Amino acid sequence: MATNNNKIRVVELFAGVGGFRLGLEGYKGNKKPHHKFFETVWFNQWEPSTKKQHAHETYVERFGYVDEYTNTDIAKVVDKVPVHDLLVGGFPCQDYSVARNLSAAAGLEGKKGVLWWSIHDILALKGKKSPKYLMLENVDRLLSSPAKQRGRDFAIILSSLNKLGYVVEWRIVNAAEYGFPQRRKRTFILAYKKGSEIEKKYRKIKNPIQWLEKDGVTQNAFPAAFVSHTSTFKIPDDPVVTSQKFNMDEPGRTPFFNSGVACDFVVHTGKVAPIYEGEISTLGDILIDDKKVPEEYYIKQEDLEKWAYLKGPKEEKRKAASGYEFIYKEGGVTYPDNLKTASRTIITGEGGTAPSRFKHVVKTKNGLRRLTPIELERLCMFPDNHTAGHGDTRRAFFMGNALVVGVIDTLGKALAEFHFEGSLK
Question: What's the fold here for domain 288-338+347-401?
Answer without folding.
Answer: DNA Methylase; Chain A, domain 2 (3.90.120)
